[in-house]
Amino acid sequence: MNDMIKRSFLILWLLSLGWLLPAQAQKIIQRDLNPPQRMVDGGGQVTKVEYTNHKMIVYFVSDKQTRAPRPRLQYAHSSQTVYGPGHPNSWRLYDKKGNREYALLYIKNIKAVLENGQIEEVAILDQPEAAQFDFAVKISCEAHFERPGKGVQLVDLVEEDVRYYRNGTHSQQPYNVYDLRIIAYKDDLRNAKPPVRKPPIKPKPRPTTPPVQKPASKPVPKDSVVAQTPPKKETPKPAPIEKVENFGSKVEAGRTYRLNNLLFKQSAYEIEPESYPELDSLLSIMKRNSTMEIELAGHTDNVGDPKLNVALSQKRVDAVKSYLTNKGIAPSRIQTQAYGGSKPIADNSREETKRLNRRVEVKILKE
After folding, report:
1. Where is the composition biased (Basic and acidic residues) (predicted)?
2. HEC states along the chain?
3. Which residues pair with 140 in a beta bridge?
4. 4-45 pLDDT, tens per residue?
5. Bigger pLDDT: 278 vs 202
6. Which of 177, 250, 289, 356 reaches 20 to 30 Å from 185, CA-CA?
7. How far apart are the C-alpha atoms of 1 and 9, rounded to whole Å?
8. Domain boundary among 152, 169, 188
9. Is the overall model pTM greater than 0.70, yes or no?
10. Residue 267 maps to a domain
11. Per-residue pLDDT tens digits for 306-354
């Protein structure tokens, strides 16, 4: 009795082991998302590859936007076809380096999206037949293959007879994917040499410059206030300018004289009648020295726009020149120059001295 019980338990254990083995064989042990692939004929791509101990599962998607027209179809509208194992046009994996094919076992979860938005599905395709989807704009499926042997790194996913593929000719436009990456077996990974890691290179220390020591400042007594008065800017004294009435005794080329009694109102260039005696003195000197040539230089104070002051000083010297030429002096003997307020001879902060900067100077160019 005990032997029969033991034998029954042994049979049940063997049966359970037989059912469990296929489940263990189907377990996903490796996964490769978006594997590298060199090119695709007909449009579409492999989006994922999964591995069990005995199978390689390829997830394929074909979209109308990237798919080229397929001349093998006899329909004017869009159509896509999936071929089951054993069909002449079914997929297979081809190892070019080892010159070996790996067969398609079956195709699962075939899903087609039609132009009208409807969805057609085929659960499994495991016979040598074709599943055709008319007016399909997108199709996806998972193809189960024999797992390539150890050492295989790249395979081609070939949809038609390998004879056409080997010769480089196609009787149709297939869904071929080239140079699809294969993940190595765990044994291959275990035997692979670990990468050699180089020690990190330590950066060289930068030379440090000793800090510059500032001289110690003298301590300031508490509650004391140190008043620092900025030094006053000294206005350079102008070169001495002689009066015009000295012309008679010392008329020399290169010397500059000021018309002291020739003054102008602010922002004006008209000659006042009280200035005529000063101009008449200059006129008589130029008539006595018929070869004398002069330069009239016009100046203003610092009130207003500098550009306008230059224009004003030019009008003032032009007024003096007109007075002399109207009295008989040749215009060629008189040159003019305008400086605006750039060359003051007195302080511009007070009105009694500012008016001295509104002047006309005479420079002897030729005796």
Report:
1. 231-241
2. CHHHHHHHHHHHHHHHHHHHHHHHHCCCCEEEECCCCCCECCCCEEEEEEECCCEEEEEEEEECCCCCCCCCCCCCCCEEEEECCCCCCCCEEEECCCCEEECEEEEEEEEEEECCCCEEEEEEECCCCEEEEECEEEEEEEEEEECCCCCCCEEEEECCCHHHHHHCCCCCCCCCEEEEECCCCHHHHHHCCCCCCCCCCCCCCCCCCCCCCCCCCCCCCCCCCCCCCCCCCCCCCCCCCEEHHHCCCCCCCCCEEECCCCCCCCCCCCCCHHHHHHHHHHHHHHHHCCCCEEEEEEECCCCCCHHHHHHHHHHHHHHHHHHHHHCCCCHHHEEEEEEECCCCCCCCCCHHHHHHHCCEEEEEEEC
3. 61, 111
4. 666 666 555 555 444 444 455 578 888 898 889 876 655 678
5. 278
6. 177
7. 13
8. 188
9. no
10. yes
11. 888 899 889 889 989 999 999 999 999 999 999 988 888 888 888 777 8
Angle at the Cα of 164 from the Cα atoms of 160 and 166, rounded to 5 degrees: 110
Q: Retrieve residue 97's tokens.
A: 């380096």
User: What is the β-pairing status of strands 293-299 and 334-340?
Assistant: parallel
- Tokens, residue 257: 């004289």
Please provide the distance, in angstroms rounded to a whole number, between the alpha carbons at the two ends of the chain.
Answer: 157
The total number of structural domains that make up the chain: 2
* Chain segment 77-118, per-residue pLDDT in tens: 467 888 899 888 888 898 988 888 898 999 999 999 998 889
| Contact status, residue 82 vs residue 131, Cβ threshold 8 Å | yes
In a domain, 207, yes or no: no
Cβ contacts of 194 within 8 Å, gap of 6 or more: none
Identify the CATH number of the domain in which residue 305 sits.
3.30.1330.60
CA pair distance 146, 210, nearest whole angstrom? 72
Domain extent for 258: 242-366
For residue 329, count other CB atoms closer than 10 A to its CB.
Answer: 19
Q: Is residue 212 one of the residues assigned to a domain?
A: no
